[in-house]
Amino acid sequence: MAVKTFAAIDVGSFEISMKIFQVSRKGMKEIDHIRHEIDMGTETYTTGKLSYERVEELCRVLCEFSEIMKTYQVCDYKAYGTSAIREAENTAILLNQIEVRTGIHIDVLSNSEQRFLDYKSIAFQGEGFLKIIENGTAIVDIGGGSIQISLFDKDTLVSTQNMRLGVLRLQERLNHLNASLNQYDNLIEELVDSQLQVYKKLYLREREIKNIIVVDDYISVMLRKKSDNHEMTGYAGKELFDHFEKAYHTKSVSQLAQSWDMPEENMPMAHISVMMLKRIMETMGAELIWAPGVTLCDGIAYEYAEKNKMITASHDFEQDIIACAKNISKRYRGSRKRSETLEQIALTIFDSTKKIHGLGKRERLLLQLSTILHDCGKYISMTNLGECSYSIIMSTEVIGLSHREREIVANVVKYNHLEFDYYEEMGLHSSLDKNAYLVVAKLTAILRLANGLDRSHKQKFKNVRTSLKDNELVITVDTNEDITLEKGLFDGRAAFFQEVFNVRPVIRQKRVIGG
Known about the structure:
globular, six-stranded mixed beta sheet
């Protein structure tokens, strides 16, 4: 059985960390964890760039990581940058400089990709995760630049929302106010509560949240050191959580650092994390906290093992992405029946035309998301449906999608309603490369065709079958209803499909006996 040695590198806001794993079909085993504190987030969030000294330190540490990988005979690695790199004004220059000097290539994660990897690392904890999400659960992912709150309802991820309340960002604000440690509680409460109340009104409503899963660099350490008589470490009730908060007022900074085995300089950030989570717990009325102790590096490793088919997840992550899209559609009063019909027709066309479109499973998911979100813009304007739908999708985070994938979905929905822009024209207002542009064109052609088959929005067809014969796509529909409208508008939709694939769609009606 092949065993691979893999390195996962997280270039974070306050720390660079690397975990070395042995990965095989039996699972994953962590064999080393190297960490180096470096405050890149504060510089990026305040000045927009990293100083010369920070870049020098970053490159030096990554060179050391490279040497460590050699000693472990690492056969593959993945390095990701998060908000400190993502929000820098000169990201492309910075990444090129790092790769030239260290030989390490860093990919930048979008916020939704980063949180999805954190989420995967939790889900791979197995029974502990599956049991806790049986009841209303929120994942609170506390980072340096922002926090992400993801809600579960009956083991399905239903919403995720990002707020710029990260630990480093808040600490910078408190430093700007010259706040003492004694003033932190009230100031953090004021800074956090305004956003939490808006969040509660928009997303919680009648939803009951009993459990919170926390992912962070500070509270997780505390909770995994001190349990509340739970069978597993990392669990705590509200009483134990209150104990942590009170400790700040009864112990010195050095005593706290010694008690929780943290550097003294981390205590202000730990205090901010504690206060934030306390306010979130009180807002949600949660009773139990679970800190599984996972990091982004774990998520990177799980993704690698999953892609290489060494491990199989017990949780269906694709369904989480679909569930998020459905909740976005519901929020903007999308038509569920119409979306289901459109989805069924579009995916039938996609599956029967694999030979001519050459797209894979991931693009199929993007098409499915496009059918779910196809009419979200009507919430704002029925006249400017395409543009409004595009704006909503680009402004709404769909956990698990990269920025590129979200832009593909947004454009497919947009051009389902508007005249298609060719690459040169689209490039004036889009960052998509030619490969992504071709995906947009192909998925748009399929969605338009599916949309044309249900133009009346009456779901007239009992069954839709497609078959590819020579240069024709024969679409057979079972119905006894009048489809004059569908046939009349079909040619316009079919023309773009033929332009993209050089295949002519043909619609054929089959009467249903006894229907």
